[in-house]
Amino acid sequence: MIHFYHVTKQFDRYSTALHDVTFHIDKGEFVFLTGASGAGKSTMLKLILRQMQPTEGQVVVNGRNLKAMKRSHLPAFRREIGMVFQDFKLIERMTVFENLSFILTVLGLPPREHKKRVYSALRAVSLNHKMNAYPLQLSGGEQQRIAIARALINDPLVIVADEPTGNLDPNLTQEIIQIFSEANLRGSTVLIATHDRELIERSGRRVITLDHGRITDEKIATPQRAPRVEPLFGIGG
Amino acid sequence: MPPREDTLPKNTLTYFFREALRRMWVSKRTSFVAIAMIAMSLLIVGAFLLVAENLGRAVVRAEGKSRVNVFLAVDAPPAQISAVGNWLASHHDFAGTRFVSREVALARFKQSFSNLNDVVGQLDENPFPPSYECEVAPAVAQSPAFAAQAAALRALPGVDEVQFDWEWIEKLKKVINLVNVAGLIAGGLLAIAAAFTIANVIRLTMMLYRQEIEIMRLVGATEGMIRGPFLIEGVLQGLIGAAASILILLGAFLAGQHFLAPRNSLLWGFLFNGFLPWRKLLALLVGGMIAGYLGSWMSVRESGEEGP
Looking at beta carbons, which residues of chain B come within 8 Å of A71? Predict the structure, then answer.
């Protein structure tokens, strides 16, 4: 579903975000992308959404070579991707309902269906009671969940999320990962960029690790058990 | 094959209008400037059209009659006057002959130019000559045979001058053409200026919504979907401006008809005979919408996703 072939992204002579990166994510996979800040995670996601083009190499998403894709086909392509941006990218002058409903307008769904679908998407992130609020009236965590609801509202083929749990407490983080897992079970391919090591270790999913623009590791995370607590004074166990 | 970028969802028109109206409301002041510019330019075009329309109506009325005025010498004896009358009666091309005495001519002048009554009152004697008025069919008036008859009429004793309506009708037609051309040039130039004003207003609005436009692109909105509300905004500004210009023109016309026309019946009656026909009003509205559309199109065509 997502294929990078020897992708290099250079911004200028002294700044290279990705060096000869090659990896493949199959349809229906759930993959974490990790690495320290500045490792190239966001650049990779921008390349997937064709916010930018690689300096060298090819990016193929859902069978489309993004370098060769005509600009006129870009909107339809982007509608197949549910993107959760690190800075949320919610439209401030629109209410939560309008932010989500706009996606459905773009998709051409009749207005009578908007309320039902928006409500359902907001309920999934436990924010159905904030339908009429404006983004700036919400906390960072709430805005993040609205951005997730927006990305999931049209059951996209690919879900790409940039630090989607960055502003959430552990309980909400688990809830959100559960939402992504359910979308994955419904058939969406999921790629989540995060540096939350604990979240990745618990997941048991494939992990691609980036360091200074290079893939340094690709493995399946092994779910770690909680450390065994020895019986205290011979009681318990 | 994915749908092309210019494929728009079915319910987008409602979205376009809602967004365009909302943006106009948010940027009330700048929208007002654009609307005022359109209204001013179309008001000038409309005023020229209105003058030309009323002059045109006068021409149509006059052309249907093709009147001939045979002015006699002020001191023409009754015998000469009746001889001219008999000559006109014996020539069938001159129909409906009426004699206008000097007194009737003076009375008509007083009625038509009531504002000059004081001047006329100061005259020692009636300066108007007696005359005959008759009708000539327009087709007959164009024939060479009629020209010979007109020459014979001019040569009759006591005849001072023979005036044919179609001579001034031709002059009036030229004036009408001039008024139309002047109106179109002045209005056209102002409409271009108005279109540029709208272009700048839309450009400002697009700057205001830059972040929002970027988000729209990232979530898969087509360029048509992004640009649509801005184009509709320009069209609406043009339409409102045109409607405002028509209302102002109508107000000025009704005021003129009410206050000016009765006092100076001939001249103002001439100019305030009737308002613009619906076709020309429609043309003004469409003109405003086109100017608005062109203005916003100039701005939105510059916008587009940066990068490859």
Answer: 5, 305
ipTM of the complex: 0.78
Residues of chain B whose beta carbon is less than 8 angstroms from a beta carbon of chain A are 2-12, 14-15, 212, 214-223, 225, 305, 307-308
Residues 6+ apart with CB under 8 A from B44: B183, B186, B187, B190
pLDDT tens readout for residues B128-152: 888 988 887 766 776 777 778 888 8
Q: How far is A221 from chain B (nearest CA, A)?
A: 31
H helices of chain A, where? 41-48, 74-78, 96-107, 111-124, 140-152, 170-185, 197-203
CB within 8 Å of A170: residues ≥ 6 apart: none
Give the whole-angstrom CA distance, residue A18 versus residue A10.
7
* Residues pairing with A61 in the sheet: A2, A64
A167, with CB counted inside 10 A (0-12, 13-18, 19+), is middle
Tally: H helices and E strands in chain A: 7, 10
Cβ pair B9:A109 closer than 8 A: yes
Query: Token pair of A207, please?
Result: 């992990």
A34 in Cβ contact with A197 (< 8 Å): yes
Under 8 Å between Cβ of B198 and B234? yes
Q: Give ∠ CA B151-B154-B160 in degrees, rounded to 5.
A: 160
Residue B250 DSSP code: H
pLDDT-based confidence at residue B1 (cuts at 50, 70, 90): very low
* 3-class state of residue B174 by DSSP: helix
Per the structure block, which two tokens stand in for A89? 């990218």
Cα of B204 vs its chain's centroid, Å: 35
Q: Please list the rounded mean pLDDT of every run of 10 residues in chain A (237 residues).
A: 87 82 88 85 88 88 85 85 86 88 80 86 86 88 88 88 79 82 88 84 84 82 57 46
Q: Which A positions 72-131 lie with beta carbon below 8 A of chain B?
A: 72-81, 83, 85, 89-91, 93, 102-103, 105-111
> Chain A residues with CB inside 8 Å of B15's CB?
105
Alpha helix ranges (H) inside B219-277? 223-259, 265-271
